[in-house]
Amino acid sequence: MGEGSEDVMENFDTAPIQDDSGVSSEIVDKFEQFFRVVYEKELTEYIATHPDATSIVVDFAKLESFDYELADALLDNPDQYLDAMEYALGRIEIPGTENRKLRVRLTNTPDERKLLVRNITSDYIGKIIAAEGVVRQTTMVLPKLKVAKWMCRKCGRTYDIPQEGPKLKKPPVCVCGSRDFELLPEQSIWVDFQRIQIQEPIEYLRGGEQARFIDIYLEGDLTNKVKPGDRVNVVGVLRLLQPDTRRTVYGKYIDALWVEPTQKEFEELEPTPEEIEEIKKLAQDPEIYDKLRRSIAPTIYGHDDIKEAVALQLFGGVKKDLPDGTHIRGNIHILLMGDPGTGKSQILRHAAKIAPKSIYVAGKTASGAGLTATAEKDEMGEGGWVIKAGALVLASGGIAAVDEFEKIDQKDRAALHEAMEQQTISVAKAGIVTTFKADTAILSAANPKRGRFDPYQNPIEQINIEPTILSRFDLMFIVKEKLDEERDRKIAEHILKTHLAGEKRIAYETGTDKELTAEEVEEAEKHVKPAIDIELLRKYIAYARTHVFPELTKEAMDKIIDFYVNLRKLGKQQNTVPTTARQLEALIRLAEASARVRLSNKVTEEDADRAIRLARASMEEVLKDPETGAIDFDVLTTGETKSKREKAKIVLNIIRAKCLDTDMVPVDDVIEEAVSNYNMDRDEVKDIIEKLKRDGDIYEPRHGFLAPA
Q1: pTM
Q2: pLDDT tens-place string over residues 367-397
Q3: Closest residue by Cα to residue 357 from 327, 320, 390, 401
């Protein structure tokens, strides 16, 4: 509280009281002077442009400049001082507000009152605070009693009782001695009421910390201003929620004076001038891309292409909103498919740790509703339903790391179609129809159906994920276990050095090795230490995403066009489904991200080459047909290679031909003809027959026999 505020409070308590307002005349005079000197012109202009306004927004910083003692007293005694402020506002004749009382809304509170939810303690009860968070859920707007009119059932006398807090208040006893009262709803004063719940921004959490949340009570024109998934700033008074039982522990909520959505996801990570200089120096480093690779999961050996791709994903492409309303996403989606124990989860966790805003979820514990949004019965018993935002909505503006992607139920994965491409989530549940923003990049990891990859089958056919989902990933990488003695030795050395570094750190900190020096520990940790400090890298990414919006140069465009056209030609020559515009847009996003790494406003030929190299590496691993060696985009649209589809057609034709003169054909006869006449593998034919049965093209009239459907 500012200097001299005790005198202000003393004057407030002892000054004469206005009969109709119940506030100190001296304080009212000060607020009236503030409005007349600082705000009168703004008030008149605001009411002229908002004729139906029921409140006025007051910049707290202007009040503080006018009279800091008055401003400090307002922060600590809001109930009395806000009444005085609103009474003073009522004295000013503003055209268009006759017979209308205006509420005062406060914004721009001092930094020391801007708190994380976890720091909102009992010290602030009854005081003005500000909090920032992501809206988890909202209730429907309901009527709330502001002033209840009660009538004595015995004598008919009426009483106006102001309502504060969650419990209904009525007169204790009538002048006639009766305690029997009836509420008169039509003659009472009501106000719109809505409860929302906000949780701490995810980027403030470290390790496995749980995000804290708090309820916000909104009234009047503050209702229906925000929706789940919105990031908001709230200014209000911290209140206590009395428990139903006689316990000493109370709940808490914020009685909002102001709430506004903010889309500045990375503002809180704005680096200092010194850090900006360091970031610019890093961006000019010719080895910056190598340093980024060495900063992504340094405890995992190799996987340079994957680490580079993840680094580009963190920086992201440029999102565009076109004049016709079309939205083009800038987020890059990446899928890692691989054998168990190859470090996929480590890469995901490390990327989530670096990203300025992220959520990590595992497939077995994630549902479609948990990823998108869910409808639940209102916990407060106010009637109706509430919508709770899921992981992709809460991570909007950052990264969602989804491990064990294949273990998410198929119908739940279908909910991701819209989120991945349109970057929105539309909900129609429990009579609530709405759309959330999900401006989220997805980094996923998946395992093959049978535990490990079969080198003789296309990887896509071995992943239990629908082609419609796969086609939305910009890059897909296979992480395989390869038998290579030299590489195995390097991996083993890397793992052992990682463990040794951890052991030395523990031995040094606990003092179990008295001869160990800090320099020796640092030397042991050198090879597992990120090339760029994580905190600096987070700010580097945040700075690039908020300040750099590169444009394609003609040279970069020509490179990307040539690569795209050649892929289309390849598809035509092989008589397969050619690459689509989705792959073209993926190249653009990767090239833009590459330019952002250098803080460049131009996408150069070098950036296009980097995007093409990563795209080619992804295609050669994932889309190559093991039989023909050619890149086959059919596998993305149908889930199987062109050669596999042609073989299935051969087997189906064999069954149809043999069934021309009979109702069914023995399975062994079909297999023998396919093996002898078409040089097909026996096990492969069996797999094709099973797939044809699953697809409904053939059926088994009796055991050991087949017939066309």
Answers
A1: 0.65
A2: 666 777 776 666 554 556 667 777 788 777 7
A3: 401
